Amino acid sequence: MSDNNQSEQNQELTGAPSPEELEAAQAANEADALAAAQADLAALQAKNAELADNFLRARAESENARRRADDEIAKARKFAVESFAESLLPVTDSLEAGLLQPDATAAQIREGTEATLKQLKSALERNKVIEINPATGSKFDPHQHQAISMVPLPPESTQEANTVVSVLQKGYLIADRVLRPALVTVAAPK
Question: Is the pLDDT reported for residue 8 higher than 80?
């Protein structure tokens, strides 16, 4: 017997695989591993494509939302005074109607002016424009008042220093923000 035949017989007796069988088994394992890696790669590529698509959709959606918000802001700026202007139209109508009365008496003109002023104040209040008209003796507030001068008080006065003596011009707030401070004179320290 040759050495090859004898080793084959020994392998058959011991149950050990032959080198050809080992190579075939190794090739099958490599083919299985390659197939598994290719399947994993295909799954990862599909997941990557799905994530890329989701990203593009989310990006487009956020861009659309930003554009809509910009449009709404532009419209809000453009028409912000619409409500305010609309509330002033009756005041304009009243003033024009008053001017169409050429032979009105002084009393009629005063009455019409007072009614028009009432309309104007109402329109301002509806649009959150609030009057700042501090009472005499109220504490001076530098956030809402502008002191024009300090005046000495007579000795018999009980008014405290740094309080409002008189209002020269009313101020106005718009939504808690000072539009114009009230011009006031303030009591000087004694």
Answer: no
